[in-house]
Design brief:
The protein is of the alpha/beta class. It has an eight-stranded parallel β-barrel with strand order 1-2-3-4-5-6-7-8, surrounded by five helices. It has helices at about 15-25, 45-55, 85-90, 100-105, 110-120, 135-140, 145-160, 185-200, 205-210, 220-225, 245-250; strands at about 5-10, 35-40, 65, 95, 125-130, 165-170, 210-215, 235. It has a single domain, classed as Alpha-Beta Barrel (TIM Barrel). The mean pLDDT is about 95. It binds phosphoenolpyruvate (PEP). Phosphoenolpyruvate binds near residues 171, 177 and 215. Phosphoenolpyruvate binds next to strand 8.
């Protein structure tokens, strides 16, 4: 059985109506390999526009829309926050959670991330759960400890079986937006650790959970990264803002065994 591969565009606080339109036009002309899903995650104000644009270009059944965050509560006095219901009203299917920028700049803890994962799952949204170590943690040979500490609160909150509906994105913090990509071998070794960690709890789930790589992926390095046995696509930041480059990356993704 082939594992699903996913290429997700994380536009962060970039892009707007023009990029929504350009991306739809480019996506309308790409061919994807079997078992590859593409998810585009613009900022909240453009989710609805992307949904309309996908419908207009007849792409809504082929490509998915993702958000970059969700609040852990249903509704109420949480000024500036966005609920799962609001995302679903914009045809959102995925949500990026635990991105290192949210963990470091907005001080989101792994416990809070776990609550958000639960809220997403309970509302039928697929979490793209980001985990990753800092450069200092890698230098101190703490990578596996850090990744385990980021995964465990989510496992405790939702249970291992819920990982059938979770996508993991391994994003070494030192590789995000820096141009310093992990070597394919280094990334593969860490992805294998993540899968083994899950397999210790449920081997079947571990085989099914897509584990994406993120961190300075571009049109030049994507093929070698995606060729690794345990890399099931990518979470793409900077390169996803260039429709041409992003579509090259999408076309390079393979469904894995
Ligand atoms: C990201 O922010 O998720 C990311 C991987 O960014 P970049 O591709 O720019 O390193």
């Amino acid at each position: 059985m082939k594992r699903q591969s996913i290429v997700a565009a994380n536009w962060k606080m970039n892009g707007g109506f023009a990029l929504v339109e350009e991306m739809s036009e480019r996506l309308a002309h790409i061919s994807l390999q079997e078992s590859v899903n593409v998810v585009v995650c613009p900022s909240f104000p453009f989710l609805s526009a992307l949904s309309h644009s996908f419908i207009q270009h007849e792409l809504a059944d082929t490509f998915a829309i993702g958000a970059q965050n969700v609040n852990e509560f249903d509704s109420g006095a949480y000024t500036g926050e966005v609920s799962a219901d609001m995302l679903k009203a914009c045809n959102v299917q995925y949500v990026i959670l635990g991105h290192s920028e949210r963990r470091s700049i907005y001080k989101e803890t792994s416990t809070q991330v776990a609550h958000k994962v639960k809220q997403a799952l309970e509302n039928g949204l697929t979490p793209i759960l980001c985990i990753g170590e800092s450069e200092a943690e890698r230098m101190a040979e703490q990578t596996e400890t850090v990744l385990a500490a980021q995964l465990q609160p989510v496992i405790d909150e939702v249970g291992i079986s819920a990982f059938a509906n979770i996508v993991i994105a391994y994003e070494p913090v030192w590789a995000i937006g820096t141009g310093k990509t992990a070597s394919p071998a280094m990334a593969q070794e860490t992805h294998q650790f993540i899968r083994t960690f899950l397999a210790e709890l449920d081997a079947n789930i571990a085989q099914k959970t897509p584990v994406l790589y993120g961190g300075s992926v571009n049109a030049k390095n994507c093929e070698e990264l995606f060729a690794q046995a345990d890399i099931d696509g990518g979470l793409i930041g900077g390169a996803s803002l260039k429709a041409d480059e992003f579509t090259v990356i999408c076309s390079a993704a393979k469904g894995t065994n």
